Amino acid sequence: MPEPVEGMPDDDAVITAEDAAELQLLVVMSRRAAPDQVEEVLSRLDRIGARGRVAPGRESTVIGAIGDRDELASLALEGFAGVQQVLPVQRPYKWVSRETSPEPTTIQVRGRRIGGDNFGFIAGPCTVESRAQTLETAQAVHDAGASMLRGGAYKPRTSPYSFKGLGTQALEILAEAREETGLPLVTELMDPRHVEAVIGTTDVVQIGARNMQNFFLLSEVGRGDKPVLLKRGPSASVEELLMAAEYVAREGNERIVLCERGIKTFERTTRYTLDLGSVAVLKHETHLPVIVDPSHAAGRRDLVLPLARAAAAVGADGIIVESHPAPEEALCDGPQQIPTAEFGEFAREVRSVVELLGKQIG
Ligand code: PEP
Ligand code: MN
Fold first, then answer.
1. CB 264 within 8 Å of CB 232
2. Cα-based distances in Å from 294 to 37, 115, 122, 151, 274
3. Average pLDDT value over all residues in the chain
4. Average pLDDT over residues 306-310
5. Are strands 185-188 and 204-207 parallel, antiparallel or unpaired?
6. Would the pLDDT of 2 be above 50?
7. pLDDT of residue 90
8. Which ligand 1 atom sits closest to the C-alpha of 152?
């Protein structure tokens, strides 16, 4: 048993085995922390109804904090006098964690499924450019056996001079394509001002890579009633992606699909580096379905099939890919879009890997 610290109340002392199971934070005091600084941490914990358990060490004192995770976080203990470090013991996410819900979640939309044995096959144009281009692509991906239709109405573009989508007109065209094919729609929401129009039309709301940490947008779709396709930011860690999903889930909407779409690295031969390891990690950490976007990761259509195969093999719950009747004329992402004339062959190849893995297109 460690020696009690002078001036420390007895019942606060020592982290027992029972306490250890409930610990949320370890507050490491600096070597020179005075007993009244330790006391101050304990009394602040006490005031929010949390408990502090003290482990006095030879070099420095450690306080184990037990209590409500959100309230403990709001104390911002790392700023207290005498505190050297605050270490979270539990994972920082709860709703999306596999520890909370060990069974994998399946997302159902208009009779289509993503998760479990159901491989989601989302396909369609990068961007709605015209009615004809969208309807032709929708029909092609439908005939090839895709399970959902993608298409951008509002486009995040690096250059302010690039085509940024047809907006509400595109939403109308997408609704018509859904009507014709019966495929559920996936389209991106970029701006809280478009919530009504986009959520009102689409079946799945996409939050794009650039908005992964737009916390107001995340909370907004968390209060909505449509499933959310949340893409990983090009510079975001796996933990940041899970924390972004937690923003959505804690508002009440737990119908979330995560999407790995490539990250920024030093490598220049592909548009982004597809981080397939993240898919394996995510499948371990969360019960949410995880899909892969090989189109944006590769930036080249010849790599889309090999990356799609690899995604299925690593355990992804689906893919989202782009197609266009005439990619050389596309207003956005032409080099990576699969010509509609070749989409049937692409889909056959994808399906054969999916079936080899004992799954079906959902
Ligand atoms: C998209 O899917 O249309 C898109 C823009 O992708 P990302 O947000 O991953 O760049
Ligand atoms: Mn695109």
1. no
2. 53, 18, 12, 16, 7
3. 94
4. 98
5. parallel
6. no
7. 86
8. 3
